[in-house]
Amino acid sequence: MTDIKIRKAEGTWVVRAGGAVLAESKNALELSEDGYPNVIYFPQEDIAMAFLDESDHRTTCPHKGEARYYSIVTKSQTLKNAAWSYDDPKASVDRIKNHLAFYPGETLAVERV
């Protein structure tokens, strides 16, 4: 059994892509899962959803459920499947419902400010 812990992410967290702040939250959650880097989940109400387009991509995690993906549209490019959410997560991780997480990389930053 995979050990997953969810706790409030301390401080204020932001997501930046293409020179824009896509999310800023004092209510983000930090998910720790054995064998993976910690992931910050942002409440949907703290995200500029106008920058996100739902894609057809889906994955299934045996511990969290089915993930739905979003591409992020910036002025200069589209970051395919750069964010994901669990609309109906398993009961053990139901705190991440209505939250999105983002893949940090060269063109997308997830950071505490």
TrEMBL record:
Pfam families: NTP_transf_9. It comes from the Bacteria. InterPro entries: DUF427 (IPR007361), DUF427_sf (IPR038694). Residues 14-104 form the DUF427 domain. Transmembrane segments: none annotated. This is DUF427 domain-containing protein.
